[in-house]
Amino acid sequence: MLSLATRALCVRASSGGPGQVDLHPAQVPAKHILRAIELADSSAGLTAPHPNAGCVIAHGPRVVGEGFLYAQGTRSAEVQAVERARDLTKGAIAYMNLEPGDCHGDDSALTSLIQAKVSKVVIGLRHPLKHLRGKAIEALRAQGIAVVVLGEDLIEGDQLQDVSRACQLINAPLLCRAVQRLPYSVLKYAMTLDGKIAASTGHAAWVSSSESRRRVFETRGRSDAVIVGGNTVRRDNPRLTTRRDGGHLPVRIVMSRCLTLPDDANVWNVANAPTIVMTQRGARRDFQAQLVARGVEVVEFDFLTPRAVMDYCFDRGFLSVMWECGGTLSAPAIASGVIHKIIAFVAPKIIGGVLAPSPVGELGMVEMTQALNLSDVAFEQTGPDMLVTGYLQPVPALYPAVSAAVEQALADYITPSVKPPAVISFYKTWDLYGAFSNFSPHPIIVVDDSGKEIAWNSVEHYYQAHKFVGVEDPLAKDRILKIQFAASPEEAARLGRSFARERPDLLRPDWEEVKVEVMYKALRLKFTAYESLHRLLLSTAGSVIVEASPNDLFWGAGRTGAGQNNLGLLLMKLRAELQKETERNQNPVPQTDSAAVNA
């Protein structure tokens, strides 16, 4: 479901019902981009936050194809829209809320639009990430396709200004990451009509209605992580889950300097959702060891602050974070400038009490003129409650202040003609070297022992399934099929990891001995099947390649660099082999006279 502010902008920019086709020509771009925004939101809660991209292909007001990016590592919105339009794409116009391109090495979106012979592309927002910004636009124009970018190539009226704003809000997490180098943070709380989040005793179940709580579960599903403080764990003992089977499960983060936390908190059960405890260095080492033994990840900071935690979440690749803490933690989070949006549920209840806690603690303000004002405020009734949302700080905007040539010069893309950096890090698919990720949208074809070709949607699909290959058990075979046909690499990883934890007896007995070999086979298939990936890997000659996972100490380097970085090592091994093969092909060994005669 679109955020209230985005939905309000969409409604304001619309005229007439959704089935209206007799539009004025000036209304058509707005209508179709608004539809692309609506499509872009379709995967919310089902997968981890990622660039929100939708595409509509139309002849005038008539839509012939639609698509949206389901998750990182899945087929692009443009490919899906072209496929659904079939043979009706020639001369059509493609409308999208975001410039195509979410993984270097995957040019399927551009290829599909070019081959479809669309006459024009209308884009609501240039890609916020600098290494992708403007590349698709210039590539399409180089192929003779007209490209229009809102705010740059159209004369905006009020309607198109609303559309541009809606394009920004639907990708607010990506914009915050690109411009501010912070995850997009939402502070959520429920309070009574007199501004209390609990009674003076601390009892808080329940302030809001069941309808409001369902909305909270939906919002959690749109987040990479949910943050609470130690007081919330001690007082409420929350589970912080989405209360549903399947779909995305955010990481639960508990911030506590002293770790005076209960031994039996619900968040220590990591069977359904992971938990990270963030604390100050040296705090209760014995308790830390207990948590680690139960599968909880512990991260120590020299100084535990909201900003330090957000820097960590940024490094971890998080796009969106939800804060569900009390006033003691929400106040410093607001004061440190890491909170972007407020979601407040106001229940028609009065509880009173001078000592009853409020949602935000002391901010040091002594006059009402110092109050922080929200923008893009929207209201909605949820059951008996009132839902109020607004932005505490504006969503960053991208301004076309420089020419396309300068944009291209600013781009950080590494090509074989440019010396690569000494250390190349990658993690998420939208990173500069995100094509190295096992989640990248590059299917591989594997030939089995019988000569049959089997398609795997990503390296991650192949790797996770092979944890159970050869196990003669119906459950293991069923899990392999589920992983093979998982809709995204994220889902494949979740299916493989959870089953390995739940049924370690069904993990193939030689897995620890063969898993590196399995990974290398998949990587070789991937980087030899795609010429662009082959070139990209060879262009990194002389660089150390590091898989920058902060929590995987086997395949990645870990947060402190103490991990084994086996994925990076395999990529460098593969790079060396491909270099030798390329050299042999370019400089074949000449045959001797005797060899020529024998031939």
From TrEMBL:
Keyword Oxidoreductase tagged: yes
Keywords for the protein's UniProt record, in alphabetical order: Multifunctional enzyme, NADP, Oxidoreductase
Pfam families, per the entry: NADAR (PF08719), RibD_C (PF01872)
Tagged with keyword Transferase: no
Domain CMP/dCMP-type deaminase: 27-148
Full protein name: 5-amino-6-(5-phosphoribosylamino)uracil reductase
Top class in the EC scheme: oxidoreductase
Coiled coil: none
Species in which this protein is naturally found: Riccia fluitans
GO molecular function: 5-amino-6-(5-phosphoribosylamino)uracil reductase activity
Pathway(s) the chain acts in: Cofactor biosynthesis; riboflavin biosynthesis; 5-amino-6-(D-ribitylamino)uracil from GTP: step 3/4
Superkingdom of the source species: Eukaryota
Xref: CDD domains: NADAR
EC number, UniProt record: 1.1.1.193
